[in-house]
Each structure stands twice: as structure tokens, then as C-alpha cells.
Amino acid sequence: MTKVPTIARIWRGRTKPELADEYEAYNSAEGIPPLLKTALDVQLLREDREDETWFTTISYWADMESMTAFTKGDPRQVHHLERDAELLCELPERIQIHKIVVPRRLR
């Protein structure tokens, strides 16, 4: 039986447009794979603006316990990737945790 996600963990960060492709590739190679191994699902979103590019990573979890086990502590604490300080405009200070009110349909 497939578990239905009840919680979303949302991270947002921004970079300069000239670094956006590099950060997308870096995050896809270093940040996303550990989530894919543990979370029920993961999405990486990119919003290109004129003067900055925003990235949003949403990971979906069955419950707080599974998310806490993955983060080995407070799931609201940000765990920066090694090159985040180099590639992002600033280091994000928080993670958002949202309860999923309307779940995605299972395929």
C-alpha cells in the first residue's frame, strides 16, 4: 500500500541569474538525491525573474516522525549544501512545514 503524504517540507533560496543553471545542476546532484531516497516524493521548482532566480524544494512526508528521522533533529532547521554560501544570494534561515490539506491523487 502506498503511503499518502500528510506533510510538506518547503525550502526556498535565490541566486543570481548567471548562477541559476549551475545551482540547479548542483542542487539536483547533491541536494535532491538524499531526499529521493527517503521522502515519499520531491519537487524542485525554479522561478526565473529579471534580477534573480528562486528555487523551491518541496519534499513530501507521511508524518513528522519520518521527516525528523531524515533530518536527525528539528525538521525546520536548514541543512545547507557545501556550496550554498558560494552560489546563493544569502543562506536561507528557515524551512517551512505545511500540513497537506488536499492530498495529491495517487497514480
Topology:
Layout: E1 7-15, H1 20-30, H2 32-38, E2 41-48, E3 53-61, H3 64-71, H4 84-87, E4 96-99
InterPro entries: Dimeric_a/b-barrel
Protein name: Antibiotic biosynthesis monooxygenase
Entry keywords:
28% helix, alpha+beta, 28% strand, four-stranded antiparallel sheet, 4 helices, 107 residues, 4 strands
Description:
The protein has helices at residues 20-30, 32-38, 64-71, 84-87; strands spanning 7-15, 41-48, 53-61, 96-99. The model has no long low-confidence stretch (mean pLDDT 92). The protein is of the alpha+beta class and 107 residues long. The protein has four helices and four strands. The longest helix has 11 residues, at 20-30. A hairpin with a 4-residue loop joins strand 2 and strand 3.
Mean pLDDT: 92
The shape is globular
Count of β-strands: 4
CA-to-CA gap between the ends?
Answer: 12 Å
Major beta sheet, specifics?
4 strands, antiparallel
Whole-number radius of gyration?
Answer: 14 Å
Q: How would you concisely characterize the structure shown here?
A:
With 107 residues, the protein is of the alpha+beta class. The chain has helices spanning 20-30, 32-38, 64-71, 84-87, and strands spanning 7-15, 41-48, 53-61, 96-99.
